[in-house]
Structure formats: structure tokens, C-alpha cells
Amino acid sequence: MNDHEYLLSNIQNIKGIGKKTGQLFKRKNINTIFDLLWHLPTSKIENSKVTNIGDIQIGKLQTIKLTPLKYNFPRIRRLPNRVVCQSNDIKIDCVFFNSYEGYIKKILPLNTEIIISGKINFFRNKYQITNPTQVKESNENILEIQNKYSLTDGLTINKYNIIINEVLKELPDLDEWLNDDIKKKFNNIKWKDAILKIHSLDTKEILKSKYYKRLVFDELFAHFLLSSKIRTKIKKIKKSQKIFKDCKEKLIQDLNFKLTNDQEAAIKIINEDLKSKSRMFRLLQGDVGSGKTIVSMIAAVNCINAGYQTSYMVPTEILAKQHFSFAKKYLPKNVKIEMLTGKSKYADRKKILENLKLGKIDFLIGTHALFQKKVEYNKLGLIIIDEQHKFGVRQRKELSEKGGNNCDVLVMSATPIPRTMMMTVYGDMDLTLIKEKPKNRKKIVTYSKLEDKISEIIRFVKKEISNKNQIFWVCPLIEESKKVEQQSVVNKFKYLEKYFKNRIGLIHGSLDKDERNNILNNFLDRKLDILVSTTVIEVGIDFPNANVIVIENADKYGLSQLHQLRGRVGRGSKESYCILMFKSSLSENAKKRINILKSSDDGFIISEEDMKLRGYGDLLGFKQSGIKNFRLADPILNEDLFLLAEAEVKKLEMKGDNFSKYNKLLKLYDRASIINEIT
Length: 679
Ligand code: ADP
Ligand code: MG
Fold this sequence. Notes:
The chain is globular. It has five domains: 3-42 and 170-180, no CATH class; 48-142, CATH 2.40.50.140; 183-236 and 636-678, no CATH class; 248-434, P-loop containing nucleotide triphosphate hydrolases (Rossmann fold, 3-Layer(aba) Sandwich), CATH 3.40.50; 445-600, Rossmann fold (3-Layer(aba) Sandwich), CATH 3.40.50.300. By secondary structure, it is of the alpha/beta class. Bound molecules: adenosine-5'-diphosphate and magnesium ion (MG). The site of magnesium ion (MG) has 5 residues, from helix 12.
């Protein structure tokens, strides 16, 4: 086994880890020896020198010699295992919670003197040590300092320290992968030394140390190299150039607005991609309401005019319908458009699939159904994916492969995220931003109100309705229980129904798709004035006539989430309002957060601030994205290292480096395990 194979081998290869312990580690997602290295000590334990039992101090960490006399392993599960021991005629019990009998017998063999460290208690007239931190044979050296780790259940400090020390002792010295310039930035610290050090440094010092930073850099460097590799691989595939006359001017004629500069720029670069010899793999990122749809529709028509099919995927059926009717209304009449969703009737579906294969359909709009196995295209030239921030690198890659070599990919996302996160999550794609909002937008006026002022809110809402406007009323999402959530949203609905009679609708998570689409359509058709819902109001749907959104328990949401919810209104040119309701008066911190929201309507600024206040894990949608999988790197704390790693990879790209020098680094750090597929 070479060094890399050893590091990536099963954790059970470590001396002292059997099957049971291996499983305990697996539960914490520690599968390989390499995985174990990144679990850092949380604090230190200072053991005393060996003390005579007569001199021990109760309640303190002590080290004593003793001899086990008898095992006492009760059959009742929740009772701890005990070992009766003796030290200079004084009896002392060693008590073990969550340790196996076999293990206890091994470390505390009867009638053999051993050395033990742990906190001494005096309980029912007897000394005892619970879960000793260290157990050694009488002739072994004791460790004066031990590390405390956030332990997996069932692993004692003693056992964990034995394991990690064994791993660190056997840690191989890997060939350096960093070049001299970079190495110098981290005081020429070697990988191995860095790891040894972060396990021995004072825990308060770890995060600030160069040792730690070098390791963060390694992780980020590997990540960006991998992204770059995927990007290059996709680009390298030659496709036929798409030749077309830009449909933009004609399409825009029928709409009563002018494109923003950012929209124009996005269209231009996408056109260049379509015309180029290498494949497009581009992310179009723009805040809610920034007008991404029209940009993508222009791309679709241009691709179709070049003689290819376009496929447009959205996350929900209702959004598919909205895009479909937009396309029907505004796209040139010669474009043959169809819609395919999970709801399509069998006969329709069959017909659509046939025509698609024959090339009698140019433009297919739909949900995930578009990419099922049976769906065969005649000449697919462009895949557009809207509002998909929940796709990971791997899924994007699979999708891009499905389309075949001539197929370009355009992904659109409305989740405004700080730059460090953007480059992490979408590093495999080219990126275009739409920052500018359409000119006719008015700022959404944002208020906060205590819950007991609800009658004021109702009065306000009634006035807006009498001006022919529509209202969203968002009830809190109750994560623990669907049932409680449904009840609370139903109660609120009943309460509001008294005021709004039969002009009010309700959607929540337990409705089936048909019911919910029905209600959404009624709202869109203005048969309802007010829509009560949990946060499930679909992303991306355009409700141009809704101008008020009321959000209950607003303190339960992240700022970005509130911003996205707020973005459901204010899409037309009317004055719009967002009313944040709170149960009780706000803390200082909460006030600060709400003020950010009130003073800015720039999703990027809001998410940046949100991240600073709450940490990146909570940001909308990023729990699922895999970014949390970084072992050490943190987009807030290590922003400088993100930028450095990115710049280094760019430099290599410019030189045309094929990264072969970094293969080993990549193999070690490849979290998505896709490296084998792309090399
Ligand atoms: P998103 O980027 O969130 O997908 P949409 O594409 O749904 O935003 O656009 C939101 C609304 O803004 C739509 O009603 C759309 O017709 C309108 N819109 C798009 N571009 C412009 C523009 N340049 N000027 C005015 N309104 C626009
Ligand atoms: Mg959209």
C-alpha cells in the first residue's frame, strides 16, 4: 500500500480499531484514516503525575496506580459497567458508561497493576473514577497532556487518544504539491508537520496558526483545481457552431419594456457561447425579479433558429405553465412549443415524445420529467435550468452529459450568495451576473409590526385590496411537525376568512398537487385577493398583481430567505409592501438584521451581511449544496485563502498547466469522488 492508499484506506486498518469502533466512527462520517485527521481537539486535559491514593484530591484529575479485582457488568443496559479495584488497601471503582465488556477486560486485566488517570469522586462511601481518560500498563509512560475531541458516543478519551496518536505516529510524509512561492506564504510548513501541529497546539491557537491555514489552503486549492478540471473538460469537447440571426430585437418589440444593460450583456455573452466551438456551461445569476426569464427565452429562440431543439427545465409544474404561456404568447409563431410534466396525460406524453424524437418539437418546457431515460431528443442544442440552486456539481455534470456533445447548458439561479461561496459552489461553470434591476421597479417598503397589531395590518390589507391589489400572507413554517404547522396555518386561515370571506385561499405542504395548483391558478387569475400559505409559495412564479406580503414570525428566517420571500411582490410597477410580523419586541441583534433588510434591496449585500451574522451554513439552500462538506475551510473566516487559491488556479490555467502534478492532492481531497470520472 502506498502512502495515499494508506491514508484513504478504511479506518479499521488502524491498530486498535475493530469492527465496533469502526462503526462508531462511520456514524460520524469518518470512514478513512484521512477523514480522521480533520477532527481537531476541542480542549486539552492536563493529567497529574502518579499520586499516592492517600494524597488524592476529590473532584480533580488524578493519576494513580491500582489493581483490578473484580468485574461487575450488570445485565441492565442503562447501568454502567464497573470494575472493583484496589490501591494500597483502599477500594476504588472504575465506572464505564458506553464501553464494551471486551474492551474493559482488555485494558483492565484482573490482578495486574495499571496506571489510570481520571476525575476522582467519592460516592456512597467509596472512591470512584468514571470513564478514565487514560489507562496504561504499570511500566508505560503516562501522557501528561491529552487531547479532548468531540467524541463519538461509546469512545472514551483514552481510546480516542490511543487511536489518534497511532494515526499521527504513522502519518506519512507526502511529496510536496505546493510550489515554492506558495509554500513560502505559509512559512514553508510541510503538510505532515501542519497536521501534527494542529493536533498538538493549544486549541485557541489552532485557527490562527499558519499550520492550519496551510491545510485550509490545500483543501481549497484542491477544490478549485477540480472545478477547473471539470470546466476544461466540458469546454474541450468540440461542438458544431450555432449560426443564427439574433431574435432579440423582434422579441422585445412585443414587450413593453427596455432591457437593462446587464440583460443586454448577458444576452451578448450567451450568444457568443452559442456561436462558439466549445460548449457553453454557464450560470446566470441574478436576484429575484432581475429579469432572467427573458434572457433565457432569447437564448432558446436563437438556438432554435440555428436548427436545434431547446429544453427548459423548471422545478414546479405551475412555473412550467407560466413559462409555457409566456413562450406561446411572445415567441415567434414558427417555434413549435410543448410542455411536459409529471402530470401530462399518458396519450399526450406519448405524442410529445414521438414528436420530440422526430424533431417536430423545437422547444420543450417542463419539470424533471424532461430528463427521464425515455425522453429522446432529435437534435438537442440547449438545456436551460431555472431556479435550481439545489443541484450539486455531480448532477450538473450528469445533466451536461445527457444532452450530448452539441448541447449547451445555461443554469439560472436567484440565490444571491457572497463571492466566496459562489466560486465554491459554481466553480465548474462560467458565470454571468445580472446585478441591475429593471428601471420601473419601486423599492418595496418594508415594515415591522408586533403581532398584537394585527387589526392594523388587516385594515391596511383591506385598503390595498380595494385598490385591486393582491396579498400574500405567509405563516411560519414549523419544522418539527407537519401536523402542528398545518393546524396553525389552517387556524390563521379561518381567522382571516372572517375578514375576507370567499376571496381568500390557502395552500400548505399537505395539499396534493392538483388542489394546490388550482388555488395558485385562481390567485393568478385574480379570483382570490389573498393567499395564505406556508413558505412554500413557489419560487420564480410571477404574480405581477400582488403587491403586499405579510410574513409572520419573521425572526425565524434568515435575511436572504426574507429577501426572497419579499421578492414575490414588487414585480410590477406598483408601490409594494412587505410587512414583517413579530411575536415580541426585537433584540438588538434582530433589529440590526431587520434594518439591513429595510435599507437594502440588493440580494448580494443582504446575503453577505446575513452570512456575517449567522454563519454560512444557514444561508438559503446551502445546506443541500454540499458546501458544508469542507473539512476546514470557512467562507467567512478564510476569505483571503479562497481568493488566493482561486488566483493560483487561474495562474496555472493561463500557463496551460494540465495539473498532472496535483493528481495525488486531488485524489486525497476529492469529496465528490468524481476525479476518476474526469481524468
Ligand atoms: P427572475 O429573474 O426572478 O426570473 P423574471 O424574469 O420573472 O425575474 O422577471 C420579473 C418580471 O420583470 C417579469 O414580469 C418580467 O416581464 C419583468 N421584466 C423583465 N425584464 C424587464 C425589464 N428590463 N424592464 C421591466 N420589466 C422587466
Ligand atoms: Mg425566474
